[in-house]
Amino acid sequence: MASSVFGIGVSGLNAANLGLTTTGHNIANVNTDGYSRQTIKQSAPYPLLTGNGFNGLGVQVDSIKRVYDQFLTRAVDIAQTQSSYQQTRLAHLAEINNIVADPTAGVSPALQEFFASVQNVATNPSNPPSRQAMLSSAQTLMNRFQVFSQRLNEQRAALNGEITNTVGTINAYAAQVADLNGKIVVAQSSGQPPNDLLDQRDLLVKDLNTMIKTTSLPLSDGSINLFVGNGQGLVVGSQTYTLGAVPNPANPESLSISYEQNGNSILLPDSLVTGGQLGALLDYRNQSLDLAQNSLERTALGLLSTFNQQHQAGQDLNGNMGKAFWSFPTTNLGPGIDVPQLGLIRPNTNNTVPATAVLSGYIQDISKVTTSNYELSFDGTNYALGNLSDGTKYTLNAAEATALTTPPAGFTSSAGLSLSLTTAPAAGDRFTIMPLKGFIDQMKVNVSDPREIAAAGPVAAVEPKAPAVVNTGTLKVYQPDVKPQTAVTTDTSIDPNLFTPVTLTFVSDPSVVPSGMAYSVTGAVPAVTGNLPYQAGAEISYNGWTMKLDGKPASGDSVTVQKNAVTASSDNRNVLALGKLQTTRVLDGSTATYQESYGRMVATVGTQTSEATIMGKAQSKLLISAENNRNSVSAVNLDEEAANLLRYQQAYQASSKVIQIAQKAFDEIVNLGR
Question: N or C terminus: which one in the chain shows less Cβ crowding within 10 Å?
């Protein structure tokens, strides 16, 4: 009997000791990140059958368990990857928003200052300081464009470095998870859970979800498998499959994510890499950085191209036609037709070698140019032009495909791009088209002499002067304007017959106008025969110019439109037209001015920043809530552990008392035999 009681006391003593040890372990790890409190699971051993019934044999500790909820832990991982995504995205959006939306040093104020200088020249076209100020403002505007472009390029370069570092961190975490998987499998083969190792692995999985969204699958042997993308295994048991940051075959300047498996490298589409820092970096690049860079380039392209067209339609103080005010890469299609080159066309690095076809092209319509990049592909039968921003594809019809491979005709897309292939490429070949790439970096102010600013109109209307027979009627002549400039780059700035003198002679011709005046036209191309009715206030157009006449001419009166005289230094017709470009909607399908188009990009980036701010705060609260829910189950509570210490201490003392009593009983039995 004493022996039985002694054994029961020892079992209680051991159980209480394990309880004290476990409680002490909990208290020691109260501040350990990811630690789950542990408890002992104890039970009564199988009793001993005696003649008096089943006698208990004390207590046994079956296991030391961690207090853990798989679903609450997974909720923390999900909240972590979303919170990290929003915080990373916000940090980068804030940087780009500060660049493009600067109210004092941004592009918009520089545009306003430049057009203010244009208006000053219009006010006093012969004033040298005003002309010099216009050239200085143009230089300032160019510098502003290039500084902002450089800052965005620096953002892209830094982004590549961040992507590389993040991928390296993901691989390191994955390797640690795989290593712990192996240790856990070995440890768990003993039949008992390795609690501290399981906590370490859970913490690594949480840290991994800070970098990229993962999906976990627990296995019966205690290990877990981790997957990314649409099911690519990152950790499978104790084996890892690494990710890589590699140059994109379509655009080597941008890094893409590759999946390395059995010596093979598979490129993952950016859309499959979601969540965490890595997903945020890729989305920021595709949705914000590309938009900002292309919008900035498009604003510059619209300004430089249309400003050049209008400037070349004017006359400078030397009596010469205006030259290109801005310099940028162009392709000459004929006399007076210099069109903007496409920024960059890059064959895919996976194309057939040697290349069988070369793709080239130019920007045909400024108003249709978008902020997207494109990809031209050939499957052996059909050509397709894909929009890399929204993923849409347009398949060329037979006529368009023929034009594409028949230079110089080319195929003109709905985005205003004219494309030509020297010959049909090999099946599967693709070409990346970045219409606006590097445009700003190569822009320059092409006019250095203030006298070369073409402020005057190229043609002027003159009336006869003495000693010739002068006009005797009340004819009022408004100076002619050249035809309005368009966003179509293949249109010439001036009509080839612009300088052919055209004379309007007024006559009384009852057969044409019974009670008014008519006029005849000489010098028009094509020629005009017969007399035409005159109507006061109506506009008359010939040879690429339009002129308004008013008043009542007398029979024999005339007016001639001819090349403007060199002495017409007070003429401001063309510089007024240049000034009107500021409020002319030539971008975004002719719905936006230069500043409005740029402003839309600024508003989009601002909206994205605001959205990321709100979502970041919301996700941070969700993460805190998820962690609190997990901690309410798994975290160490010092008050509870203090109570456990007392409980196990008392159990220890009581078990010691049982042993002490058993010892006394044993002594009494021994003494009975003396």
Answer: C
